[in-house]
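Title: Comparing notes on inverse folding

I've been comparing how different people in this forum approach sequence design from structure. To keep things fair, I'm posting one structure and asking everyone to reply with a full sequence. Here's the target:
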């Protein structure tokens, strides 16, 4: 049985909440790489810029490091993990402070070649 070659790319500590990126990862998972890139260009979501860059990097890794055909690539996996949370404060009445969580994400995209 032939082993399936995959290439991956990651972006770590991206300053956007993981729940915003998760929507986009669900949208491109299993799609053709060129189609997924076109989706990233034309979807008005906050995280499309970041996921598009990671996807482009994964395709470049596949092409340059593993000699895969970029026309046969598809998004095998696309997922996001929560990074560290930057904790900030908002001053409130009577000297209190409300916490504001600035969330970060680790985005991973894995592309593979179709048979």
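Reply #1:
Here's my take.
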């Amino acid at each position: 049985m032939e082993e399936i070659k995959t290439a991956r790319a990651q972006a770590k500590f991206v300053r956007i909440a993981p729940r915003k990126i998760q929507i986009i990862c669900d949208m491109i998972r299993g799609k053709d790489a060129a189609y997924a890139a076109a989706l990233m260009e034309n979807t008005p979501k906050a995280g499309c810029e970041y996921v598009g860059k990671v996807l482009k990097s994964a395709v470049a890794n596949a092409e340059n490091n593993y000699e895969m055909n970029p026309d046969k690539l598809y998004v095998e996996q696309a997922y996001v993990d929560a990074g560290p949370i930057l904790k900030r404060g908002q001053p409130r009445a009577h000297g209190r402070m409300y916490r504001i969580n600035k969330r970060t994400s680790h985005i991973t995209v894995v592309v593979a070649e179709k048979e």
